[in-house]
Amino acid sequence: MDKDKPPHTEPSAKPEVPEKKHEKPQTQVGESPSEQKPGAPSEMTQAEIEQAFSELTERLLRLTAEFDNYKKRTAKEKEALAAQSEGRMMVRFLPIYEEIGFAEQGVAKIADKHVRDGALLVLGKLRKGFESEGLQPMKLEGEKYDPFRHEVALREESGAPEGTIVRVIKQGYLYKGAVLQHAIVSVSSGKKKDEKEAEKPGEKQEAIKGNKEVGE
């Protein structure tokens, strides 16, 4: 009977598995364990915070300055556009303004004092109304030629210095300081040839006298 039974074998011993130690996750200062995220950056230092604040402040100041410049630039552009549109309108009224001046010259010859004074008063108010809006006739005779304001139609020999305006062919006008209509003028080309030649002998005698005085 003992021979039919299988041989008795002892159960093999199980390998010992080391117990896992439960480590607590590290937390940052002021952060609860539930808020801790894997790979979270470390807390910024005081120097880094001050540098970031300085950079943001500088950027804000730069953006504020750029916005102020933008507002000023757009305001100037609007003023320039408004002045251009007003100038185009004022050009259409120039003939009326000039007729007021001609009318004043004609009214000044009226014999009746009351009629003359009344008409001049009305015409004067009309003229001042244009001028109060910025319309202004150019001062021309005796002025130096300015290519940005004047157009030369003729050159005349005169006693005035060369390049001086001696005659106005067409009046020029300014509107708010800018040229509204260029003036057409005649400028001096200098003295006549015979006058220049007449002056030369006198100049030579003075030069000879001066040389003699130096020699003595």
What does this structure look like?
Strands 1-4-5 form a three-stranded antiparallel beta sheet. A three-stranded mixed beta sheet has the order 2-6-3, with no helix packed on it. The longest helix is centred in the middle third of the chain and has 62 residues, at 46-107. Among the domains are: 50-132; 135-200, Head domain of nucleotide exchange factor GrpE (Nucleotide Exchange Factor Grpe, Chain A, domain 2), CATH 2.30.22.10. 49% of the residues lie in helices and 15% in strands. The radius of gyration is 49 Å and the shape is elongated. The protein is α+β, with helices and mostly antiparallel strands and 216 residues long. The protein contains three helices and six strands; from the N terminus they run ααββββββα.
Task: Give a short summary of the structure.
The protein is α+β, with helices and mostly antiparallel strands and 216 residues long.
Strand % is: 5-15%
Weakly predicted, low-confidence segments: 29-34
Strand order across the biggest sheet?
Answer: 1-4-5
Helix content percent band: 40-55%
For the biggest sheet, the summary is: 3 strands, antiparallel
Number of helices: 3
Structural class: alpha+beta
The succession of helices and strands, N to C, reads HHEEEEEEH
Q: What does the radius of gyration come to? A: 49 Å
Mean pLDDT: 79
Coarse shape:
elongated
Report the span from N to C terminus: 174 Å
In total, how many beta strands? 6
